[in-house]
Amino acid sequence: MEQEIEINRENYDNYNAENLIFKAEPGITEELVKQISKDKNEPKWMLEKRLLGLKIFNEKKIPTWGPNLEELDFSKIIYYMKPNAKKNSKSWKEVPEEIRKTYEKLGIPQAEINALGGVGAQYESEVVYHNLKKDLVKKGVVFLDMDEAVQKYPELVKKYFMTNCIPINLHKFSALHAAVWSGGTFIYIPKNIKVEIPLQAYFRMNAKKGGQFEHTLIIAIEGCSSPIYSENSLHAGCVEIHVLKNARARYTSIENWSKNVYNLNTKRAIVHENAIIEWVNGNLGSKITMLYPCSVLVGKNAKTDYIGIAYAGKGQYQDTGCKVYHLAENTSSSILSKGISMQGGTSSYRGLVQIKKGAINSKSNVRCDGLMLDNSSKALTFPSMNVHENNVKVAHEAAVGKIEEEQLFYLMSRGLSEDESIKLIVAGFIEPLIKALPLEYAVELNRLIELEIENSVC
Fold first, then answer.
1. What does DSSP assign to residue 164?
2. How far is residue 348's CA from residue 319's CA, in Å, rounded to a whole number?
3. 254-268: per-residue pLDDT in tens?
């Protein structure tokens, strides 16, 4: 029996009245950085990382090679807000009603029952709910709020936190993140243990002019949203994934930020011998997104697969793509990127494949496609290939274009309306990503894109 699933855009755009026990003044200062660290009772080494991040943030300039970030005013962002809620509740009944209802509208508690092995839910700067199924706990799987992980596993966090995967000085926003990070998710999978059902971390921004800076060391599925405000907000999270020898990880992210949000996220994986990292990325919402998940293939036979889709509507610039560094022999990468733009939006693929000397027998295949739904939109590609070894195979394809009139005519001649025809063409265009998603996320992403198209053609 077919079941129609309705998704209301209001579930993402509604916001709650502020109910905070602490709200920092706008702007970033050394005093604020020290206060965040003190509130979390962090060890000295973490405070030192934060202060180093602040120093580098103040020194580095805003990148100018991508979308224009001139309207992002760091002095107006609120970097730290603590909701009036218990941290890390194990029961949704313990979460304050107005926050719990937000997650219920988004279907998170029900998804936890039906399809998930564990859920973490962050609201503003704090994780308000975190739970892992008992059978995974018995297997030794660790799934914690990042703040809690610093307390319970300090040596493990110290070893991996913003060291060789995402160094603090990588760019201005990684430095900012190091200074003011709060919350996020820590996942540790022991040797020879498989987690076959997804773990989900969900991050919700609610307040005006807010910033969210969760830190994640993970194998997980992540979803993101925030309500609409006229003031600009900033999301600059970090995701670090360490895929050790013979391990396999999939990271799936559906990011649906409000259209006032600057989404300047950093995601990187270090992939060791015979290990595999899979990235599945869906980006819609946000004012500007700059996101390029990166795989560093450091071990023999390491592999990465990336599938990504970005949707840009009116007033949006989705600058997304993928980076891969082949540093060992017999490494391989496969990149498939799809961009959709309409109503003057800009969707661009920006990618880098680098094969170092000595990485013999490495293979890379890149395909980036852009689909424009009208004459005022843009679809761009900025691929870069740096190959320093002869004994490799590298292939790149790119296709950018509009919906063909012949396609529309054919479908409309079969009785479909123009709106229905466009939706059908878009559904075929994004099919590779949809196939890679768990069913409930595939349905949701499909419906969200349909809603964006409906709102644009009405």
1. S
2. 5
3. 888 888 899 999 999
Q: For the chain, how big is the Rg over CA atoms in Å?
A: 21
The whole-angstrom separation of Cα 449 and Cα 295 is 28
List, in sequence order, the alpha helices (H) in 293-436.
Answer: 405-413, 418-429, 431-436
pLDDT above 80: residue 436: no
Paired residues of 16 in beta bridges = none
CA distance 199 to 66: 33
Q: Hunting for tokens 């391989």 — which residue is that?
A: 332
What Cα–Cα distance (Å) separates residue 75 from each residue in 146, 211, 394, 430? Answer: 26, 11, 45, 39
Is there a contact between 455 and 11 (Cβ–Cβ < 8 Å)?
no
What pLDDT score was predicted for residue 388?
Answer: 97
Residue 360: predicted pLDDT: 97
Question: What sign does the CA torsion over 424, 279, 204, 311 have?
Answer: negative
Q: Each residue of 127-140: pLDDT tens digit?
A: 999 999 999 999 99
* Strand ranges, E, within 205-345: 211-212, 215-217, 221-225, 233-235, 238-243, 248-257, 261-263, 266-271, 276-285, 288-291, 294-297, 303-312, 317-320, 323-326, 332-341
The H or E element spanning position 446 is: helix 439-457
Map tokens 């194998």 to a residue: 219
Element (H, E) at 138: helix 134-138
